Amino acid sequence: MWKIAIVDDDYNVLAGLKNAIPWAELDAEWVGEAADGEQGLQLLRACQPDIVITDIYMPVLNGLDMVERLANEEYSGKIIILSGYSEFEYARQALRLGISDYLSKPVTVHTIRSVLQRTIAELEEELMQKHRHENLLDKLRVYEPFIEREWIKSVAIGTAHTTSLLGDGMIPEACRYWNERSHVVIGIEMIRTDRIVKAPAKDVNLFRFAVANIVQELTEQLSIDCHYIDLFSNYSAVIVHLPMDAGEETDRLLYRLGEQIIRHVRNFLNISLYIGIGKRKPKVEAIADSTEEAFQAILSKHTAPVAGVHLYRYADAEESGKQARPISLRSVKFYQQLAESVKLFQESNAKAILQDYFRQWHRREDIPARDLQGLGMELWTILTYALFESGIDLEDIYPIAQVTSELAAVTDLQRLQAWLNAGIGQICEQRGGGENIKHRQAVDFIIQYIHDHYAEPITITELADRLHISRNYLSHLFKLAAGESFNSYLTRVRMEKAKKLILEGKHLIYEVAEQVGYKNVPYFSTLFKKYNGYNPTELLKQ
C-alpha cells in the first residue's frame, strides 16, 4: 500500500484531509501527521512515506525549509504543497525544490482525489521503471561471463567486427590488457577414435568439459596467462598471452604445455589429441591468424618439435618447402559460422556459407573420394554437436547409418555439396513443420512446473539448465507452443491465482502477494492493476 503523511499546523485541515482521502480506492494508508516542519522531518525520516502533503507557513520550521532539507537528504517520495498562500514566489521556490503539485486552500475533495491519483500513477510508473532497471542489471550480471566468452571466441575465429578490437566500449573489462601482450593460439582436436565416434553427443560434451578442466589445471600449474575456448564438435583452442619480448624459452614452455595436455588427457580420459601451435602475434587483430595456423599445423603435421606425441608447430611455406595453406578460406571461421547458422535454423544462410566454402575447393579436381567423405562426416558431426547444444538430437531426424550410407555414394565436390544442402534443408524443414517430441514434452514440463511452483522464484534459465536446452532456444520453443513469452505466462498464472485468493476473503493483500511469489507488495499491486484493470483492494471491496 502507498504510505501518505500529512504535515499541517491546522487541526481542522488534518482531520478534513484524513476524512476526504479515499484510502481504500487509492490502495493507500495514513502513516502519521505533524503540526510543524521540525516534527514533520522527524516523522518523515522515521516512516519514509511515499507521499507527503504539507502546508508552507508553520511554526518552528516552515514547509519549504522542510522540503529543502528533505531534498538534501535525497528523499525519494512525492511532495504535495497545500497552502493558503498563492503568491508566485512561494510557487516558484516550491517548483525549484521539485514538488509534485502546488494546491491553494481551500481544496475540494475531487481535486485532492485527482491529484493523489495522478501522483500514485507516477509512483507506480517509477516503481516499474526501477524494477525493469534492476532486472536489466541482474541480467547483465548473469550474462557478463557469457559476453566475455563469446567476445574472446569471436576474436579467436576472426568474426569480431571492431576495427580496433580493444578500443570498443563493448569489450569486456577483463580483456583490455591484451594490447600490452603478444598472443599465441594452441589448437586442440580430439582424434576421432572409436571412443569418440561411437559415443553419444552428451558423452562427447562431457569429454570436452573434462579436457577444458585439464587444460585449466595445467596452465595454472605452469603460471600461463591464457583463455580456453570451446569451438565446435571435437575442436577447442587456447589463447596464450605472453610478454611482448618473449624469447625462445616461451616456445619451450608452450611445447611443454602441449605435451602435458596430450599425456594427461590420454591418461585420465583415454582420449587422444592432436595439438597445433600457431605463430606468436603482436596484435590482437592477428589472433585469428594464429588460430588458423594452429589448425593448419594439425592438418599438415609437418613440424613435430616433441617426439612421441601428436604435437605440431606451424611452418610457413619457406620452412616447409611447400604451400602451407592450400585453402585460403579460414576453415575455423567457416566451421563456426556454419554451426551457428544451423543451430538457429537459418537455412539460406547456412547454404550460402557452404557455397562460399566449396567455391574455393572447386579449384581442385584431384580430391580423393575418401577425403571428401571424411570432410562430409566432419561437417555432419559439427552440425550434430551444434544442434545438441540447442536440445536437438540429430539422430532423431537423420540416423547415423543413413548418413554413412549416403556419404559412401559421394565421389565429387558437387555431390558432397548437394548432399549437405539436402541435409540442412531436412533439418530446418523438420524444425519448421513440427517440433521434436522432446521439445513438446519440455514445454509441457515448464507449464506444469509453473502451476506447481508459481509461489517460488522461477526463471527460464533455471528450467533450461534442468532440461539441458539453451535458454534462448527454450524461450523460443515456449513462445511458439504457448503463444506468449515465459514471463508473460508466469505473470498470468500468478495474477489468476492472486485473484482467486483475494476473492476467498481470508487473506490480507501482502499475504496474497507472498503466496503468489512477490515480496514487494507495491510492485505486486501495480502488476495486478495492470493485468486486471483494478487494484487488489478494489477487488476485495467488490
Structure described in brief:
By secondary structure, the chain is α/β, with parallel strands linked by helices. 59% of the residues lie in helices and 11% in strands.
Q: Which percent range fits the helix content?
A: 55-70%
Largest sheet: 5 strands, parallel
CATH superfamily descriptor of the largest domain: Reverse transcriptase/Diguanylate cyclase domain
- Could you say what the CATH architecture of the largest domain is? 2-Layer Sandwich
Structure description:
The chain has 542 residues and is of the alpha/beta class. The protein has 24 helices and ten strands.
Layout of strands and helices, then pairs:
Layout: E1 2-7, H1 11-20, H2 23-26, E2 28-34, H3 37-47, E3 51-54, H4 63-72, E4 78-83, H5 88-96, E5 101-104, H6 109-157, E6 182-190, H7 194-197, H8 201-221, E7 226-232, E8 235-242, H9 248-269, E9 273-277, H10 287-300, E10 311-313, H11 317-320, H12 331-343, H13 347-361, H14 369-389, H15 394-397, H16 400-407, H17 413-433, H18 437-453, H19 460-467, H20 471-482, H21 486-504, H22 509-515, H23 521-532, H24 536-541
Descriptive terms for the model:
5-stranded mixed sheet, alpha/beta, 5-stranded parallel sheet, elongated, Alpha-Beta Plaits
